[in-house]
Amino acid sequence: MFSGADFSNKDSLLLMGIVNVTDDSFSGGDFLSSESAVNHALQLLSDGADILDIGAESTRPGALEVPAEEEIKRLTPVVKSLLEKYPDTVISIDTRHSQTAEKMLELGVKIINDVSGLKFDSGMVDVLKKYPESKLVLCHSRGEPDNMMLKKHCSYGSDVVESICSELLEAAEKSGLSRKRIIFDPGFGFAKTPEQQLDMLKRAEVFVERLGKVLFGISRKSFLGKITEENDPVRRNGSTLAGELHLVACGAAILRTHDVKQLHDALTVLKAIGEDSK
């Protein structure tokens, strides 16, 4: 399947490990205790994570909003502890709230991952402009978590990939932020049917060609379970890895994943195979 695939960009690819400071994410592995969240984050770094993506609000379909005040309460001790131990740690905060983003940027966070695509909080761009060295992950989505899977939000016409690219580029231009600061995320799992997501995965190279620096997050997503008939997200690591290796071959810049060690080790072996065959 991967015959001829190019895995030579392993050293430039960044692995983003997921830390959920929540009690209701779709995939489990939640760490409401700041101590357990920090320990998990440190394990992800040891496993090969280049970036930690820390979130305190589940944005799975059907999830309820967590107020910014609660997000900040959950996130602050985790971020402070990590940056005190390892000041050079690159932390991304998964949030739709400008108030949360501003507080985390004050603490030294480098990246804001807004899964609403800047649609939820009109103050987010102003906050980002206060911190010109920060980066934005601009994720494609429609609607809110509690209604994103409605038919009206999942309707994309004849070409879902082209529609997503156009909407992301429009949002980036509207923001006024430099393109150098923006990392695009096509938004697997956000207002897309399983069939649309499989099409997105098959044609992932188009996202890279059209958008440039792209973050992909397919880890344990339900469309993979639809393919394998696996209802338990935690048992989707194998299907996740298959999709992630395809994304590497397509030129992904960042992969957001639950099992960092599995992906890191797989890439290490593939790189070794490629070196030995030259």
Question: Could you give a short description of this structure?
Answer:
With 278 residues, the chain is an alpha/beta fold. The chain has helices at 34-47, 68-85, 98-107, 124-130, 160-175, 194-202, 204-211, 222-228, 237-249, 260-276; strands at residues 14-20, 51-55, 91-94, 111-114, 135-139, 182-185, 215-216, 254-257. The longest helix is centred in the N-terminal third of the chain and has 18 residues, at 68-85.
Give the helices and strands, then pairings.
Elements: E1 14-20, H1 34-47, E2 51-55, H2 68-85, E3 91-94, H3 98-107, E4 111-114, H4 124-130, E5 135-139, H5 160-175, E6 182-185, H6 194-202, H7 204-211, E7 215-216, H8 222-228, H9 237-249, E8 254-257, H10 260-276
Parallel strand pairs: 1-2, 1-8, 2-3, 3-4, 4-5, 5-6, 7-8
Helix pairs in contact: 1-2, 2-3, 3-4, 5-7, 6-8, 9-10
